[in-house]
Amino acid sequence: MGKAEILSTIRETFFYGATDYTKNQPDLFVPHKFKMLAPSQVDDFMNNLNEGLTEKEILIYIHLPFCFSECSFCNSFPYRANHEVQKKYLASLLKELDIFTGYGVFKGKKAKGIYFGGGTPTSFSNGDLDRILTKISSVISLSSGCSITSEAHPLTLSDPERIVQMRDIGINRLSIGCQTFDKDLLKLCNRRNTKSQIAKIVNSAHDVGLSINIDMMTGLPGQSLGSVDRDLEILSKIKPDTVEYIRHEIVNPKVVKLYKENPHLMVDKDTLFEMVYRTQEWMTAHGYQQNGSFVDSRQWAYRYHWLHEMPIIAFGSRTRSYTKFTCYDKHEDISTYSSFLDKGILPIGRFISLSKKDQMYRSTLLRLQLKKGIDKKWFQEKFSLNPSDVFGSLFSKLTDLGCLEEENGAIRLTKHGAYFVEDVCDCIIDTALKEESESLVRSPHSEGTTSSMFD
Asked: Of 188, 273, 409, 424, which is the most buried if we count CB atoms within 10 A?
């Protein structure tokens, strides 16, 4: 198929519009398989987890779920920043690291990457972040060149000295949420940041040797193609080290209410398709890697190793961890989270023991987000099965759509398959669900509370 035919086919028969899309990538999410875990079962669960965690390197995620305000596009539903509440949460987080260490899980391992996510991690002081990093380094060695990233709200980095201090405590990469430079759209999203503010932060980070990412979005309320083009022009001048463009996932009740009252603000499917295509074309032209096109670890070390199935051990409330055989979630409410830790119990609320088929689906979902795709020989050695035999129907569908190709013993996304990797991932999840029951429906990756913590 030619380019025009491929794009037409993807748009008409495969592309999920704003209301059908759920952010399932970058990992497998099959919530119907979760089993609840009673406090009395935690010891056995952790012992089994430890036995199966044979890898020498792991990734560590730290969740800091507090923000100064709630953005309408947000799907993480953070708590309002509050010094006393955050102080208690920090104490609980450090206690969790201690209890986890007591199970011996860190023994003989190194941390390949550490990621502070939120919420807004920089709603905590640099001293607080330093306490967490100091605790981590006291219980597990860091690999050479360990990537340490912190997400940050632009307004918390207005003072260049804060960026210097973040560098000094060991953070070597920043990720700031910008979403768009259009002030009218930002107002609808309850955000305010200017291109001059963002440019200043990027320059300050580069001045002290930090890498910096800017998060951007397509499909925001009232967004137009002209607005997207202006954003891309500004990004070209600011020159961050990495850019991530993601599609707006309509989950937050605030934006649902906004669309009900102002339906004209909803970006139509064809316009959203063009937004995704244009931003991906721009990303490719400017040498930016993203899900579906990762070549190496230079731009996105944490994500790159994640996609190679390196275990993720997450700390904090409402976090999800993955090992080769298990996925488990922490309790969501921070009061519940802390109360478990006060009793010396890890606050694990539910888990999935991944079956062989689940593992194959997960490997497929993750590896297809790498430029090299799935090495058929590697898959055969790992599962004693040919991936084409296991997923023949799924692969045929994606190939017919112009999203998948096979070459030199590898199954990988085409250029346009990588452009619409979010839809490919949703398709894989849908296939996994339908294989078990026609009644199962895909849920947002951000599944959990949909209640505002700011009300």
From this structure: 424
Per-residue confidence (pLDDT) for residue 162, from 0 to 100: 97
Spatial distance between the Cα atoms of 107 and 101, rounded to a whole number of angstroms: 8
The segments of the chain whose pLDDT lies below 70 read 24-25, 445-455
Residues 22 and 32 in one domain: no
- What pLDDT was estimated at residue 454? 56
H-state helical runs in 103-181: 126-139, 160-168
Could you tell me if 280 and 245 are in contact, meaning their C-beta atoms sit under 8 angstroms apart?
yes
What is the rounded CA–CA span in Å between residue 421 and residue 427? 10
CATH number for the domain spanning 399: value is: 1.10.10
CATH number of the domain bearing residue 260: 3.30.750.200
Encode 419-431: b = buried (16+ Cβ within 10 Å), e = exposed: bbbbbbbbbbbbb
Domain that holds residue 224: 28-307
The domain tally of the chain equals 2
Neighbour tally for 27: CB within 10 Å: 18
CB 427 within 8 A of CB 433: no
Give 81-84's long-range contacts (Cβ < 8 A, gap of 24+).
Answer: 81/120, 81/123
Q: Are residues 61 and 158 in the same domain?
A: yes
Q: Quick one: how far is CA 412 from the chain centroid?
A: 21
What SS3 class is residue 66?
strand
Instruction: Kindly tell me the burial class for residue 330, based on how many C-beta atoms sit within 10 Å of its own C-beta (0-12, 13-18, 19 or more).
Output: buried
**Residues comprising the chain, all counted:** 455
What's the pLDDT score for residue 398? Answer: 97
Residue in 325, 341, 337, 312 with CA at minimum distance from that of residue 48: 325
pLDDT at residue 450, as a whole number: 47
Give phi and psi for 269, each to the nearest 5. -60, -45
pLDDT single digits (tens) 348-378: 999 999 999 999 999 999 999 999 999 999 9
Quote the CA–CA distance of 378 and 195 in Å, as a whole number.
Answer: 45
- Which of these three, 275, 307, 339, is where a domain ends? 307
Is residue 72 in a domain?
yes
